[in-house]
Amino acid sequence: MPNGIRADELDLLSCSLCGMVCDGRSRCEIETLYCMRCGSVLSLRKHNSHARSTAYLLAALVLYIPANIYPVMYTKMLGNEAESTIIGGIMEFWESGSWDIALLIFLASVAVPCTKFIAMGFLLLNSTTTEHAMISKTRLLKFVEGIGYWSMLDVLVVAIVAALIQFNALGVAEPRLGIVFFGSVVVLTMMSALSFDGRLTWDRKVAHG
Predict the structure, then answer these.
(1) 3-state SS, residue 51
(2) Rounded to whole angstroms, what are the CA distances from 53 to 75, 124, 133, 145, 197?
(3) How is 149-188 classified by DSSP, letter by letter?
(4) What sign results for the dihedral spanned by CA atoms 59, 62, 64, 69?
(5) DSSP letter assigned to residue 28
(6) Are both 96 and 135 inside the same structural domain?
(7) What total number of domains does the chain contain?
(8) Number of helices and strands in the chain (H, E)
(9) Tell me: the pLDDT tens digits for 23-39?
(10) Phi first, then psi: what are they for 169, rounded to 5°?
(11) Domain region containing 6
């Protein structure tokens, strides 16, 4: 295929779910096209991509505050009761010598979400249209989508710790409101990344010549 020819010029549509490239020549005759492989609705670009991605990101930023303020877990062992926030839990694991678990929770609860906030903010605000910048932004979007799934490690750690304590009859462990907020942050940041359509940036590059 000659360099510079775009998929939309050839009436080709890529399924955003399974990636299959479909013939879109009938889209003028049919109101809605569906992927022949998975049945998803096909579209040339994601509808209101920038607005939806920004809204999800702002909602995640707002919920990240109570996620760190409210306790994520309540424990009662040998008569001692405690409610732990994310940062408090990291410090407790570190001081008890479980630095590996503390590091895991820090990466999943602090490093990954903050990285996603910064990366998505850059993608949404940056308007550079040079080819090198476009390639870098596309790689950054793929990176954000990839690390998003690891954010749920913190929720998983809380569930495992609670299950171990309950199973061994060592005490009582229960999740608290903070973990609900954090889970919502993870979902919203993933939706922000999935809603962002990197192809729109390439469209602007073509428009600017």
Answers:
(1) helix
(2) 37, 8, 20, 13, 9
(3) GGGGHHHHHHHHHHHHHHHTTSEEEEE-HHHHHHHHHHHH
(4) negative
(5) T
(6) yes
(7) 2
(8) 8, 7
(9) 665 555 556 677 777 87
(10) 55, 35
(11) 1-44
